[in-house]
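pinned: reference chain
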Amino acid sequence: MISRRWLKFQAMVLVELRHLATINASDRRWQMPFCAALAMGFPLLIGAYFERLDYGLVSSLGGLVFLYSPNTPLSHRMISLMAAAFGLSACYALGVMSHFFPLLLVPMLTFIAILVSMVCRFYVVEPPGSLFFIMAAAIGAYSPIEFLQVPLYVGLLAMGCLLACLIAFFYSIYILRLQPPKPVTPLPPATFDFVIIDSIIIGLFVGISLALAQALHLERPYWVPMSCLAVIQGVSLRAVWNKQVHRIAGTGLGLLLAWLLLTLPLDKWSISLMMMLLAFLIETLVVRHYGLAVIFITPLTIFLVEATQLGHDSPNTMLQARLFDTVLGSVVGLVGGVCLHNPRIRNLLSRRIYWLFPSQRNQTDR
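pinned: its structure tokens
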């Protein structure tokens, strides 16, 4: 009896490890990660040249727009990128403005998470989905800037978006000669549950994760909702679980890599080039294995947010805080994923949400 249970447990563990260790096939060419690294890194090099790495870091956030380039004809691709650039700039602007109203930080990020999730689900935006829009809002909300600097910082991010669109234009002209684009398919019918209810649940858990971070008086609270959102976006409970394990394990190894990098004699140029290399490795690996990509995502995000503060705080303290933030956000994201994909819990939450939309409730009842 005991041996049978032990064999069953071993089989379950092997299945779990197989899920977590699977390397996915990918037809992504090296030019895409290279251009993504250029879109993020070129603003850093400009900032380093003018002795304003802090400005370059803000513009490099706009370079993330390049990752929203779909594999469609050039006209559709550029329209999609410009829409993403507008959305990223708007989210960052809302986040920066909420910085001056501390009581509104949690409601504002919750609202942004709900709204952006609705738009991304309605228009079937492929991964990274709503992640970078909400990340820009969260980073902006905790940026230590003065009120009169808001137009400057929003403009810097918008310029980064513009540069990313320009790089994507020339990249698209080149890559479309090597491989044909996918046709633009009509959008599938947008169901109320998928667009509205799922988005509200996701947004609420993002807000809960930020509220927990603030209640615990964490130094960088925005790391927690970012980790929560990265996990909860899984298309199934299995995907949510895999992402949670990948994110926690990858973050642990990534923090070790970040510690090794922080021991190097870094200056503004080496930081810029190193971040470009990390971005290239991430975009090469993320479509193959999320956990491996997280190993490099962790030091990249640390340098993206903390580069101007390096040397002021102890690296060990900073890295320990990032690990705790990631674990907390991932656990909240896992709980949110259970609520999102468990039929019984989902139906309970859905009835409460339908109460806010009586017309939709009546249509469903019929």
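why pinned: The chain has 15 helices and no strands. The two ends are 52 Å apart (CA to CA).
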